[in-house]
Design a protein that fits this description.
This protein is mostly helical. The longest helix is centred in the last third of the chain and has 27 residues.
Length: 418
């Protein structure tokens, strides 16, 4: 490697370390690093630096989070949750599966995984204590459910992974990615139940009070809620049926909702996930510079020296999995997926299967209490039980980090199933 390649790579590693140690947005660091490397090292103009700025992905993030923040504020999400919980009719052991499916539905429609977990965790963990279901088990099911739907063709993560793969000349199946993610998280949830049952921890001795969300209510949606549900159906038809760009569609739907609640429009704008916009924009812009100076190709060639492409894919799955337990999954996906390009070009490995394995390995480990998803579960545990939940979730996450990357690799890469 040349100095021009080593320095930007070292900067990338430093960015991940800093973002892990302090609550700084790695996307902001990526944009600043893009300026430093591009302008001072490579002599690029600002327009050249921003040639690969992911405008379409940024618009998708803005549109999706804009609309679904409004759906949350007007109570539509609560209606969906209450309706699903009523379906169990007192069969409390079905509650984790109900929240798994609700979380999957929310993320498959476009809600960010952390946002879906933030919406569901208070009710889910509250129901867990009331029903004496282990809160770590319930938390794992919410997170697994959110990741199960997290790579749908409507989701930001699904669009992001597809666009990165397409940009690197190995197009993948969006439907296949979604099905693989759902199946792997479903399998992981079944394994979780089995493990908790073997150690006798499905039922928990802890009990306590929780806020009643009026799940017995049989009131029908009204006003904005009816309109929101109708707009969700329209979004599905437009994006899946007519392949219209989801960013523009969700922005249009959100604007319609804003017109009937004009006084709260500022709060709706505040619901846009600007931190994710910065993260994705900064990381993709910086990784494009790494590609420009040949860092990605060089790393991939060094990986090829390992020999068997299957071994390379397994190593990549574990590296991205372990890294994601402490750092941003989205940031790691933008950095690692391009590395699979040369491996795929020189082997018979399936592009869809390999990329799906990497994507799943990067996200399922977000059950770690060091990640946003895991931290939300800990935060919603009862105050006097929070330390116990934190420790047990950390042990559970360690098992996931150990097993999940290998499971994703074994089911998707050697089999050629995708």
């Amino acid at each position: 490697m040349t100095a021009v390649q080593i320095i930007p790579l070292v900067i990338l590693v430093v960015m991940f370390v800093v973002a892990t140690k302090w609550p700084l947005n790695i996307g902001v660091m990526g944009l600043v690093a893009s300026f430093g490397v591009g302008y001072f090292m490579l002599g690029m103009s600002d327009k050249q630096i921003l040639d690969e700025f992911p405008a379409s992905i940024v618009l998708t993030i803005i549109g999706v989070t804009y609309f679904f923040s409004m759906a949350q504020r007007n109570g539509t999400i609560d209606i969906i949750v209450r309706a699903c919980v009523r379906l169990v009719r007192g069969k409390t052991l079905l509650l984790p599966w109900v929240f798994f499916l609700v979380a999957a539905a929310l993320t498959s429609l476009g809600t960010f995984s952390p946002a879906a977990i933030a919406l569901l965790a208070p009710a889910a963990i509250g129901f867990a204590y009331e029903s004496r279901i282990h809160p770590v088990l319930m938390g794992a099911f919410i997170i697994n459910g959110a990741h199960a739907g997290g790579f749908s063709p409507l989701s930001v993560a699904g669009v992001l992974v597809h666009d990165i793969a397409l940009k690197n000349d190995f197009p993948i199946s969006q439907g296949g990615l979604f099905i693989a993610s759902f199946a792997l998280n479903l399998i992981l949830s079944v394994l979780t139940v089995v493990v908790f049952a073997l150690i006798g921890k499905v039922r928990d001795g802890a009990s306590g009070q929780y806020v009643d969300l009026d799940t017995s209510s049989t009131g029908r949606p009204h006003g904005q809620q009816v309109m929101t549900l109708a707009l969700i159906a329209v979004i599905l038809v437009c994006t899946l049926g007519f392949h219209m760009p989801i960013g523009f569609v969700t922005l249009s739907a959100g604007l319609l909702l804003a017109f009937i609640n004009i006084k709260e429009h500022k709060t709706f704008i505040g619901g846009i996930s600007w931190s994710t916009v910065l993260l994705v924009a900064g990381m993709i812009t910086y990784v494009s510079l790494l590609q420009h100076v040949g860092v990605i190709d060089t790393l991939a060639q060094q990986a090829l020296a390992l020999g068997a492409p299957l071994l390379i894919a397994l190593v990549l799955c574990y590296v991205i999995g372990v890294g994601s337990a402490f750092a941003s999954s989205t940031a790691l996906l933008t950095a690692f997926i391009p590395m699979a390009g040369p491996v795929l070009a020189t082997s018979s490995l399936s592009a869809s299967g390999t990329v799906a394995a990497l994507a799943i390995a990067a996200t399922v480990v977000d059950v770690s209490p060091f990640s946003t998803d895991g931290a939300l579960v800990v935060a919603n545990a009862r105050e006097d039980d929070r330390q116990r939940v934190y420790k047990q979730l950390m042990f559970y996450a360690g098992g996931v980090v150990l097993v999940a990357p290998a499971l994703a690799w074994a089911l998707l890469v050697p089999t050629g199933i995708m």
